[in-house]
Amino acid sequence: MKKSILFFSLWILIHLFPVFAQNNPQHIILTWKNAPETSQAVTWRSEKPLDHPIVELYKSSSSPIESLSKIPFLLDSTKVSLADQGTWYYYSANFESLNPGTSYTYRVGDLDSEMSPLMDFKTPKEKGGLRFLYLGDIQNDIYKWGTRTIRAAYQHSPHSAFMLFAGDCVNDGHQNSQWEEWFDALGFIPTHMPIVPVTGNHEYDELPGSDEESLSIFWQSQFELPLNGPKGLEESVYFYDIQSIKIIVLNSLMALQSEEDLSYQTEWLEKVLQENPQEWTIVSYHHPLFSSRDGKHGQYPELRDAWQPVFEKYGVDLVLQGHDHMYGRSSKQSQSIEVPDGQAGPVYIVSVAGPKMYGIKKGDRWMERAAVNTQLFQEISIEKDKLEFRAFTVEGELYDSFDLIKNPKGFNFFKEHINSASTPEKTFPNGTYSNK
C-alpha cells in the first residue's frame, strides 16, 4: 500500500509539475543540411523550454577550450507534442563557412543551466579518400539487438565520414520510446559521426485521431537535412555532394503510394543525375527493386520500371536498400543495358542490421551473394577510381567483398573477392534459406 502511494505521488510530481522535467541536452545528433566539407548541423532536445539555448563551437586544440575563440551561428527551435506521450523542445544549429578537413569542438545546452560535455567532429577533406558505413533495418528490439550492430560498425571503422541507415530505424515512427531506444543504441556515436537517415515504411504511421499515415512527427525536428529535394518531400528526398561522390536519398514508400509521387521523384532524380559532375554516384532508398524474400512483401515492379532505367542511363554505381530483412548483392541486374563479363552496371545491395529476419525463396533468387538470419554492417571506401565494398557480420567476419574500378571506356570493372560458389552462405539453423 505504501509503495502504491509513493509511486502515485511520484507520478503526480512528474506529470503535473513541469519543473521536474529535464532540461539536460538529449538526443544530440550531427547531420548535414548543406555542403559536408564546409558545414555541419547539430540538433538536440530537452523536456522543457530553455531560457538561453546555446551551442559553443571552437576549432579543436589540445589547449584548454577557454583559450579559444567561439564561432557565431544562429539557432532554430521547434516543439513536438504528443497528447499521450509528452512534449519536447528541439534546438538546432547549422554551422557554415567551416574549413574542410578540420577538427572542431562543440557543446550544446542552456547558457544558465545544463550543458553537454565537449564533443568533436571533423569536416571531410575536399579531396582524398572517403569511407562510410551503411546499415539496413534496425527496427525491432533496437536497444537489445540493434546496439551491437551499430557499435560493431563503429568499432570497426571509427573514422568513417558518416553512417547511413537505409530506412526502418524504428518500428513505429510516432513512438518516442522507440526513438529513445535508437538514440540509446547509437550512444555517443552521432555526436561526432554524422548520420544520413533514409525513410522506410515504418517511419510512417497514423497519429492519434488520424486515419492517414504521416512521416514521423520527430523526423524533421531531430534531423537537419537538405532542402534540395522535390517540393513537399524535402528532408526525405535529398542529395549531398561530398568529395567526388553524389549521395542521393529517395523516399520509396511515398513513390509506392502514389503514381504522381513516383513520377515526381523520378523526374527530380533524372534532373539531378543529368547535372551530376561527380565521378561516383550512390543512391539509397528503402524498398528494393528486386526481392526474393518470403512473407507478405515481395517485388516492387513500379519502382523497378521507373528507377532502374534511370540508374542505368546515368551510370549509378551503387544502390543501397533495406526492407527485406536479409542480405543480397548483385552486379548483374540490368534492364536497358548489356554489361560485358567482368564489368558491372549498378550494383544492388539489400542488408539488415537488426534482429527481425526473413528467408528467401530460392526460385526467385536474383542475388549472387545472399545471407539470412544474419546481422550485418557494411563499410564502403572510395579513393580516386576505386570503390571497395565490404560486408561484415556483427561478429566481425568478412562476409562479402568486391571492388568497382572506373573504366574510362565503359562500365565499371567488377572484382569479386568472395563468391557463394567457394564460400558458404549463411542460412537458418535448419540449413534452409526460408523459415516459412
Describe the structure.
A hairpin with a 2-residue loop joins strand 21 (376-383) and strand 22. The protein has two domains: 20-122, Purple acid phosphatase-like, N-terminal (Immunoglobulin-like, Sandwich); 130-416, Metallo-dependent phosphatases (Purple Acid Phosphatase, chain A, domain 2, 4-Layer Sandwich), CATH 3.60.21.10. The radius of gyration is 22 Å and the shape is globular. The longest helix is centred in the middle third of the chain and has 16 residues, at 259-274. The protein has seven helices and 24 strands. The protein has 436 residues and is an alpha+beta fold. The model is unreliable at 5-20 (pLDDT under 50). The strands form five sheets. An eight-stranded mixed sheet has the order 10-9-8-21-22-23-24-18, with helices on one face. Helix 2 (142-156) packs parallel to helix 3 and helix 6 runs parallel beside helix 7 (301-313). This is Purple acid Phosphatase, N-terminal domain. One of its GO terms (molecular function) is acid phosphatase activity. Keywords: Signal. Residues 25-123 form the Purple acid phosphatase N-terminal domain. Residues 130-327 form the Calcineurin-like phosphoesterase domain.
